[in-house]
């Protein structure tokens, strides 16, 4: 069955929020607070400068999403588009849903003049790493550090 992608709408907030909760549990066994997630997802729609979501559909039913955010690179005088919050429902995995979402994001980034796409992946998530490599993405030579507040 064919997969289509589109820019997410506010009607998708409930799906996207639930998928974020599911993704955090499946990948990191991290429990996220649903009301905080819904507020965070809604904030993307409230402030387009934060980014946008793409939603994948199969037979008219939402089956996955990703979030695009922006990072300015002064070295390249352009934006990197970061792919985040990737989720595909279990029944649609291994059917090219992420590939379709990725290709859509890549095309939009190119048309917008972005300088590249980036994403991060859990170090133990080898399946996802193989998927990203299969799409032509390369592992970076940077480590990621954070300080949460």
From TrEMBL:
It comes from Dyella japonica. Residues 3-149 form the N-acetyltransferase domain. Keywords: Acyltransferase, Transferase. This is GNAT superfamily N-acetyltransferase. PROSITE patterns: GNAT. It comes from the Bacteria. Gene3D superfamilies: 3.40.630.30. InterPro entries: Acyl_CoA_acyltransferase, Bact_Acetyltransf, GNAT_dom.
